Amino acid sequence: MAGKSDPYGANSDIRGDFRAEIREFLGTRRARVTPEQAGLPAYGGDRRRVTGLRREEVALLAGISSEYYTRLERGNATGVSESVIDGIAQALQLDEAERIHLLDLLRGAGTTRPPRRRPAQQRVRPAVQRVLDSMTGTPAFVLSGRLDILAANALGRALFSPLYEALTVPTAPAAPAKPTDSAAPAGPAAPAAPAGLADLVRPPNNARFVFLDPHATEFFRDWDEVANDTVAMLHAEAGRDAYDRRLTDLIGELSTRSEDFRRRWAAHNVRIHTTGAKRLHHPVVGDLDLPFETFPLGTDPSQLLLTYTAEPASRSQEALNLLASWSAPTNDDTTERRSTAERNSTAERKPTAGRKPTVDPEPPDAADSME
Question: Residue 101: phi, psi to the nearest 5?
Fold first, then answer.
């Protein structure tokens, strides 16, 4: 397992990472459930040394032996049955996202796979880009599981203009820690790494913007909630695919540069975030309250279509209309964007004979961001 500043370090043992995650995830879930909440007598009273359930109490509720649960919490995940997982999920009062995350962790700890891979740069199909461009009154994006913005329409780029503007200037210092309800001390913020060429070529990323750009606390009116959701989604994605080198690099970078991220990552919360509402403050049109929906793209389950809408005849709808008129693309802009998507798609299907395939530039490793 890597150090605390890089919980998914590139040189750490993969299965060891999964075992550590199982131990920490189940431990944090136990700590939040009291015996009273689980319907058990609170033996020991004030002399109890744990804030939540003991291991033997979880085992009792799950209908398994205390020894078996202890081995499982330590990461021995070989041959765990569905009935055992269901019993543990019920004992720890896990929601659906947490149950899926536990399944992912147990699956990862019980399998052997090659070392972490750096996947090819994700592309958006031209047909998907045309769908985005046709949604002229709706901000729309395609996101990866790492929260990269792979594509957007004109209104989407206008709505999230602070994020896109951050890509054209040197990387700003990390956003200052905001007070939360947590009793954990915030601690000093880590210094930001200098901007480099990789900041200009990698896709914009929501998580980087939330934790490393000082404008994020102004743009997201509920910044604490957004920050919690962002970390919870990255935790869920890490459980699904801890072999994605770009994902582990991102987590390492954020852990190194943001105390806010480190504190939230240590809580091991996970979330499936498919619908909800965002309260934004745009530098041009002011406050907006926008419900959002996400839809999986069938050909690539790691890509999601994200759309924002506003209540009809609302102040937010008026603001979106103003943004739409301000950001309306010319025919040349739309044609160029579609042509770029088509060139990328064609290049992936038919590499030019006699030429070496193009290698996407690698973003800086987490270690680089510490320098």
Answer: -65, -45
Q: Let me know: does 210 contact 240? Beta carbons within 8 Å.
A: no
Backbone angles phi, psi at 57, to 5 degrees: -70, -40
Contact 78, 19 (CB under 8 A): no
Do 241 and 262 touch, CB atoms closer than 8 A?
no
Q: Which residues contact 85 (CB under 8 A, 6 or more apart)?
A: 99, 102, 103, 106
pLDDT category at 78 given cuts 50, 70, 90 is: confident
Q: How far is CA 309 from CA 135, 176, 244, 318, 319, in A?
A: 11, 30, 32, 12, 11
Q: How many CB atoms lie within 10 A of CB 320?
A: 24
pTM recorded for the entire structure: 0.73
Contact yes or no for 273/304 (Cβ under 8 A): no
Please, are residues 112 and 15 in contact by the beta-carbon 8 Å criterion?
yes
Cα dihedral across residues 91, 97, 102, 107: positive or negative: positive
Q: Is the pLDDT of residue 294 over 50?
A: yes
Strand locations in the chain (E): 140-144, 149-152, 275-282, 286-297, 300-308
Cα–Cα distance for residue pair 288/261, rounded to 1 Å: 26
β-bridge partners, 152: 141
Q: Render 170-223 in DSSP notation, one character per residue.
A: PPPPPPPPPP-S--S---PPPPPPPP-THHHHSPPBHHHHHHH-TTHHHHBTTH
**Cβ distance 110 to 77 under 8 Å?**
yes
Contact call for residues 337 and 331 (beta carbons, < 8 A): no
**CA pair distance 363, 35, nearest whole angstrom:** 47
Give 204-226 pLDDT, tens digit per residue.
Answer: 999 999 999 999 999 999 999 99
Rg (CA), the chain: 23
Q: Max alpha carbon distance in the chain (Å)?
A: 76
Indicate the Cα dihedral angle 346, 126, 116, 206, nearest 10°.
Answer: 150
Residue 308 is predicted with a pLDDT of 98
User: Quick one: pLDDT band at residue 187, thresholds 50, 70, 90?
Assistant: very low
Compute CA 68 distance to the chain's CA centroid, rounded to the nearest angstrom.
32
DSSP structural state of residue 47 = G
